[in-house]
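Section 5.1 Outputs to date
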Amino acid sequence: MSDAQASLTTTRDQLRAAIAALVPGGTERRYPGALRAKIARYATARLGQGASRAQVSAELGVSSPTLKRMVVAPSPRLRLVRVTEAGVTPLPAIRLVVRGPAGVTIEGLDVAGVAALLLALT
């Protein structure tokens, strides 16, 4: 066994022990960031040797989807954009028709005007 293989075997055993020591949190384990990084480095090395993700996940005792999330870099979901007021056209005032009880109808006022009228009448 070469030094590189012996090193990977030792790393695998250490990772299995660390993973086995984790306490499940609800329906899944919580992997600390440092452990996730070590798992990702190990998996990347093994995948580079030609092992499948299923083989690596079995070696470590981690599910294949979990291993995939640890190895694949997350894609950015949000990006910063600058919002400017240039080119913004104000909307024309909306004229309402409000029909109330007993045939009362209010026409031709905007929202603020209807609100002011209703406040004045109460």
